[in-house]
Design brief:
Layout: E1 2-5, H1 10-24, E2 32-35, H2 46-51, E3 59-61, E4 67-68, H3 71-81, H4 92-120, H5 130-137, H6 140-150, H7 165-179, H8 189-199, H9 202-205
Parallel strand pairs: 1-2
Antiparallel strand pairs: 1-3, 3-4
Helix pairs in contact: 1-3, 1-7, 4-5, 4-6, 4-7
Length: 210
């Protein structure tokens, strides 16, 4: 299999973190990473449009030459293909709780941060848009507060002792904020503790570069 990515971009990053956590826990698999440079508009090349007509990343090329194009679909597929070190829970309730939290982080933290970055200091060269940036910030306080409260008991990771896709999505979101010098977690001590500790994980050090 091949995984088409661009470093720092949040959706490829959460898939890469998911795989890094699997490897750190001892799972063995072969997935080749292929870089598609968004800054050079390589996602709009005929080669990449054949993989994903929407010109987005990540894309997973399967062994039969077909493609998966949505990050969560890729993660769910790989979770079944690589069941060692489960990252979406081990019971019906834990899987539901993990997906619930991951979705909250994606919609209420990752997406607003991505919109804010692209409206202020877009790595793709998009023009600044102060109105969009201000609107993007609105949902962040209440969603960050939910994560802050979850971490108040001192747990090392969002679902307890073991990493899950919720940790991967949150780490990807916070890193992308740093592209624009945006630290939305700065007023949340539990979240800052989690962020500092997660970035020191062996799995994260080779993926998180900011």
């Amino acid at each position: 299999m091949k995984l088409f990515v661009f470093p720092v971009a949040p959706n490829p990053t959460r898939v890469r973190l998911f795989l890094a956590e699997k490897r750190m826990a001892g799972a063995e698999f072969e997935i080749e990473e292929v870089r598609v440079d968004l800054r050079k508009q390589e996602q709009r090349s005929p080669e990449h449009l054949a993989r994903n007509p929407l010109a987005k990343l990540p894309v997973l090329e399967l062994d039969d030459g077909t493609f998966l194009t949505e990050s969560l679909a890729i993660i769910e597929y790989l979770e079944e293909r690589i069941p060692e070190a489960p990252m979406i829970g081990t019971s019906a309730e834990s899987r539901a709780r993990t997906r619930e939290l991951e979705r909250l982080i994606e919609m209420g933290i990752l997406r607003p941060i991505a919109e804010f970055v692209h409206a202020t200091a877009s790595p793709l060269g998009l023009p600044p848009d102060p109105a969009v940036a201000e609107h993007a910030r609105e949902p962040l306080p209440r969603h960050l507060a939910i994560v802050e409260d979850r971490l108040a008991d001192g747990r090392p990771l969002l679902m307890g002792e073991h990493p899950t896709i919720a940790d991967c999505t949150l780490a990807a979101a916070l890193q992308f904020g740093r592209v624009a010098g945006f630290e939305p977690a700065a007023d949340h001590p539990n979240l800052m503790r989690w962020d500092a500790a997660y970035r020191e994980r062996v799995s994260a050090k080779r993926i998180l570069v900011l």
